[in-house]
Design brief:
Layout (H helix, E strand, L loop, with lengths): L10 H33 L2 H37 L3 H28 L1 H7 L4 H16 L1 H16 L3 H25 L3 H21 L20 H8 L1 H25 L7 H37 L3 H28 L1 H6 L7 H14 L6 H13 L3 H27 L1 H42 L7 E6 L5 H12 L3 E2 L2 H10 L3 H7 L13 H17 L3 E4 L3 H4 L6 E7 L2 H12 L3 H23 L11 E4 H4 L1 H16 L1
Parallel strand pairs: 1-3, 1-4, 2-3, 4-5
Helix pairs in contact: 1-2, 1-7, 1-8, 1-11, 2-3, 2-5, 2-6, 2-9, 2-10, 2-11, 3-5, 3-6, 4-5, 5-8, 6-7, 6-8, 7-8, 10-11, 10-16, 11-12, 11-14, 11-15, 11-21, 12-15, 14-17, 15-16, 15-17, 16-17, 18-26, 19-21, 23-24
């Protein structure tokens, strides 16, 4: 983000730069599971595939716990570092690592004890049972490793080392592939060999990830940091959305396993074939999902930056490109599903079972009949999140899987049996596409209408409309000047008021926005995160305010409204001695600490401004007026700005 200009660089070049690495990262995990499945299918057969499918909900559960702690800790690290609280960040990381290891061991023990009951709940059939039990007993032993390295992967990326994270993920995957071939095809150890290869790869990945604990760039961990403390509560709150998303996938998977085995038993295919075939189809389709999401997530910084900066045409250009690419990918995969289903299934073994091939062909050609339109739903969910509408983005994610598919599948299966479940797939796809299309249309229209309103405001200057954007050094008296100026002009004043408006717009809590306001938490990462969502939402609020009148303090408002001729842009500063006096008098800061606090906060504002505008915060060329508040005092500075603005309007 610091090396490229997201507001000017060629969109196609930016998409290649940001989306390709994201796609590769997401494909790693998908290929990891697929290769494992191929060896088990070839070495064990249909029942082996069924066993891995039955155990897969446990893998999703372990991933959900890792997301709860890892993604939550990553957000917490960035927050604490943005505040300059490195010690709190190190305590949060140490506490999370200890909690992760402790929780993962507890989960491993519990799932091992209750494994027989769990695999039955997950839809296991009598024929698959012994394979699933043997496979699952080994897989749950690997839970501590899987949860640990997955959680640490997020934490390490937040520390600015995505390459290290990818290194241990790829290393584990390669080792797993080699050992799969050795244990299953050479030693003939069956599903146990596949499971053993998996957990060896996982423990090696976990070991390499733990080596990073002495290499953190942002802070150093000490032994006392590993004590589990109250920060773990905040960590889990931040990671809760990741946890819920994974659990939703788990619920859908368990539902499908159970209904397929139930209605499959009433047909010539029996219980085992639908169970195994669905597992294969899900693993193959994960390649499409990883590709679509990788491109959309990679585009998030480009969309969010340009939307927040008011470059609506670049936003629309980016949207056109990612939707075209993702639709193209979706169509290619869909054609493969429809034309080569037998060949796809035979890669995973049991190609000599005619009933298995027959049902698998029906599953691919019916359930995934128009699967390519799901690329629109997945892309739209990420796009709307990038545009600052978190609630609508969440709705797009849950509409198909929970709100539509499960009820439709229950109704259709009641009337049409096993094939009713297959028909539910394209039916849910069509309904989801229609609903999500209208959600997208409302956002796209809003994007276009906002641009038109802004053009109208630029060309037709309303004499009654006054918008003043003020940037200020900390303790310069800039906020007070802005407040007096608003009172003199009899127009609204927006500083802390923007926080509550942003909370309504973004869905974030006010206290969370306040903690992150005008701070870029993680300058080392280019990944789109809550900082960017807050910036996008604040920019949206600023655009809405600017259509009326108001004095807006901070939030890069001068840049967000840079294309508006009727916005007056002001920078207010002060001498250090006077800033120290104000900090002591008005903010209650101890005199000995005042200078360091002022410098730290000004540095945060400079970084935040530079990140989102690619400009220098205190470069007077960015402003219509720059004033040293000490020269006239706060009141006369406010009156000076008032007279200049009124003179300009007249």
């Amino acid at each position: 983000m610091k090396k490229v200009d997201l507001g000017k660089e060629n969109i196609t070049k930016l998409l290649i730069m940001f989306s390709v690495p994201c796609v590769i990262s997401m494909l790693i995990n998908s290929i990891y599971n697929i290769v494992d499945q191929i060896f088990i299918g070839q070495g064990v057969g249909l029942l082996g595939n069924g066993a891995t499918n039955v155990i897969f909900p446990l893998v999703l559960l372990f991933g959900a716990v890792a997301g709860l702690l890892g993604n939550g800790c990553a957000a917490n690290i960035s927050l604490r570092l943005g505040e300059g609280k490195n010690e709190e960040a190190s305590r949060a990381v140490g506490s999370t690592i200890s909690a992760t290891i402790l929780f993962s061991i507890i989960i491993s023990v519990i799932t091992y004890i209750f494994l027989p009951q769990l695999i039955k709940f997950f839809g296991c059939t009598p024929n698959v049972y012994k394979y699933a039990l043997s496979y699952g007993k080994i897989i749950v032993i690997g839970a501590p490793a899987l949860i640990t390295y997955t959680a640490l992967s997020s934490i390490i990326r937040a520390d600015g080392s995505p390459q290290y994270s990818m290194f241990f993920l790829v290393t584990g995957a390669i080792i797993n592939v080699i050992l799969d071939a050795l244990f299953i095809l050479v030693f003939k150890w069956g599903v146990e060999g596949g499971a053993l290869a998996t957990i060896i790869g996982q423990y090696i990945s976990a070991f390499i990830s733990l080596l990073y604990l002495k290499r953190f760039k942002s802070f150093k961990l000490s032994l006392k940091d590993y004590k589990i403390n109250r920060s773990i509560i905040k960590v889990m709150l931040y990671g809760f959305s990741s946890f819920v998303t994974q659990i939703t996938v788990l619920v859908l998977f368990v539902f499908m396993n159970n209904v397929l085995t139930k209605y499959g038993a009433m047909t010539k295919f029996g219980e085992d074939i639908p169970l195994s075939a669905y597992g294969i189809m899900s693993k193959v389709n994960s390649l499409l999902i990883s590709s679509i999401l990788g491109i959309a997530i990679g585009a998030q910084p480009i969309i969010g930056f340009n939307y927040g900066a008011g470059n609506k045409e670049r936003v629309k250009d980016t949207l056109k490109k990612i939707y075209c690419v993702n639709f193209g990918i979706g169509i290619i995969f869909n054609l493969i599903y429809l034309i080569f289903p037998a060949q796809l299934v035979s890669i995973f073994g049991s190609g000599n079972n005619s009933l298995y091939i027959e049902f698998s062909i029906s599953l691919f050609r019916t359930f995934l009949l128009i699967n390519f339109i799901n690329s629109f739903e997945m892309t739209t969910s990420i796009v709307i999140q990038s545009l600052g509408s978190a609630k609508k983005a969440a709705a797009c994610t849950f509409i198909r899987q929970i709100i539509l598919f499960i009820p439709i599948a229950l109704v259709f299966s009641h009337y049409y049996g096993l094939y009713g479940i297959l028909y539910a797939g394209p039916t849910a796809d069509i309904l989801c596409f229609i609903i999500v299309f209208f959600i997208f249309l409302s956002e796209y229209r809003n994007l276009t209408e906002t641009s038109k309103k802004e053009i109208k405001e630029v060309n037709i200057v309303d004499k009654k409309g006054i918008v003043i954007a003020i940037n200020r050094e900390y303790a310069s008296g800039g906020r007070y000047v802005g407040k007096l100026l608003a009172e003199e002009l009899n127009i609204p004043f927006y500083d802390e008021e923007i926080i509550s408006l942003t909370a309504k717009e973004s869905g974030f809590r006010e206290d969370y926005i306040e903690d992150n306001d005008e701070k870029r938490k993680n300058m080392l990462s280019s990944e789109y995160n809550s900082d960017d969502e807050i910036f996008v939402a604040e920019s949206k609020v600023i655009h809405e305010i600017s259509l009326k009148s108001g004095v807006i303090v901070g939030r890069c408002a001068d840049y967000v409204l840079k294309d508006r001729d009727d916005v007056y842009k002001v920078f207010l500063y002060s001498d250090m001695d006077n800033k120290i006096k104000r900090a002591v008098k008005y903010y209650g800061i101890k005199k000995k600490d005042a200078k360091s606090v002022i410098l730290k906060i000004d540095k945060q504002r400079e970084k935040h401004y530079k990140y989102y505008t690619n400009r220098d915060f205190n470069n007077f060329d960015n402003y219509d007026l720059a004033v040293n508040v000490d020269t006239l005092g706060v009141l006369d500075t406010a009156l000076l700005i008032k007279n200049i603005v009124k003179s300009r309007l007249n």
